[in-house]
């Protein structure tokens, strides 16, 4: 977490609970009363932990560690009551929250432990407070605000760490998927090559025609394996898009020319003449359309219709690419844009993953809709160039 961002967030949270310098003054006034009782608060804190195995288990260093922890908690309490609540304070508090995540302390124990400190302090103040009751009530309100801010920081640290952990897990899952996909895609050509090499090496007398046939087969499989690797490196190294305004109709027509529809598929382009230009990378959007059209043709081996329509509004243009194929079952639909999630016998299942990645980088969205048996629609939403006339030429820079 960026320190300045963290401080800013803390200031914002302080404003939320109505924290003022008078609150800090009132909290500081409790030091004289509470200081002699700090050992008692700290002892109670660790005695309670002992009673809860799920909390206790994170203390792996035995009595020695508890002695050390008592020292750190005492310092924590002193800083809490007399703190300046500045950048250093906030960072140290965040670090404490983070440390608990690291050692695997369940968040709920951090919360109840804080509640226990709050109650203990309140009990001491109730019996030892030298001033009047109104002042005590105001002081307890100030302490409540401060401890709620502590709780927010602790929970924030947990949340940030969980999110980072989740991202790491997702990245690992994606790597696993890609690795599995590559293995699957390469195994087939390698097996064919192996069989041909085995034949050429071991057959008694191989006619020149047979030799030629096997060498050609090997060459074809090497090309297939090579295309898997090329598609993969294209996926991994998509260049940053250069966003420029352009009319969608042009790209749709060019993509339709590049991947001509089979004879048994009728294509209907239904783009309103007043459709505003979009702001995106023309070449990259073309790849998306190529993939969507190819995909639609493959979904209709018995023939059918492909319809391309569009609407605009809300600063965006949305193009719908609809086929009349068999549709996509819900469990496939959920994962259809993940790498190597191909249900097709051909293709290597990267077309939609690449398209989605391109659209993300072009600040758009790509979504698939389908009712099994009733075809599928892919909706591509891009920024309309009309909504940002001052950004006629934008390079989104490296991402
Ligand atoms: C809101 C309540 C809590 C506060 C204010 C607190 C305070 C602290 C502080 C100041 C540290 C030192 C952090 C650092 O390394 O910079 C720490 C670490 C630690 N806390 Fe807590 N703690 C709380 C709850 C708990 C609970 C419920 C447990 C349960 C066992 C626990 C166990 C530990 C352990 C094991 C460490 C690591 C100590 C080490 O590095 O040896 N804490 N805590």
Describe the structure.
There is one protein chain. The chain has 399 residues and is α+β, with helices and mostly antiparallel strands. The protein folds into three domains: 3-169, Orthogonal Bundle (Globin-like); 180-236, Signal transduction histidine kinase, dimerisation/phosphotransfer (DHp) domain (Helix Hairpins, Orthogonal Bundle); 243-395, Heat Shock Protein 90, CATH 3.30.565. It contains 14 helices and eight strands. It has helices spanning 3-17, 21-28, 31-34, 38-50, 53-56, 62-82, 87-103, 107-128, 133-202, 208-236, 248-258, 282-299, 330-335, 351-361; strands at residues 242-246, 265-270, 278-280, 304-313, 316-323, 365-370, 376-383, 394-395. The protein has a five-stranded mixed beta sheet. It has a three-stranded antiparallel beta sheet with strand order 3-1-8, covered by helices on one side. β4 and β5 (316-323) form a beta hairpin. α4 (38-50) runs antiparallel to α8 and α9 (133-202) packs antiparallel against α10. The longest helix has 70 residues, at 133-202. 23% of the residues are buried. The structure holds protoporphyrin IX containing FE. Protoporphyrin IX containing FE (HEM) binds at residues 49, 55, 58-59, 65, 69, 72-73, 76, 95-96, 99-100, 103, 105, 109-110, 113-114.
Short description:
Helices cover 62% and strands 12% of the residues.
Q: What's the arrangement of secondary structure elements?
A:
Elements: H1 3-17, H2 21-28, H3 31-34, H4 38-50, H5 53-56, H6 62-82, H7 87-103, H8 107-128, H9 133-202, H10 208-236, E1 242-246, H11 248-258, E2 265-270, E3 278-280, H12 282-299, E4 304-313, E5 316-323, H13 330-335, H14 351-361, E6 365-370, E7 376-383, E8 394-395
Parallel strand pairs: 2-4
Antiparallel strand pairs: 1-3, 1-8, 4-5, 5-7, 6-7
Helix pairs in contact: 1-9, 2-9, 4-6, 4-8, 7-9, 8-9, 9-10, 11-12, 12-14
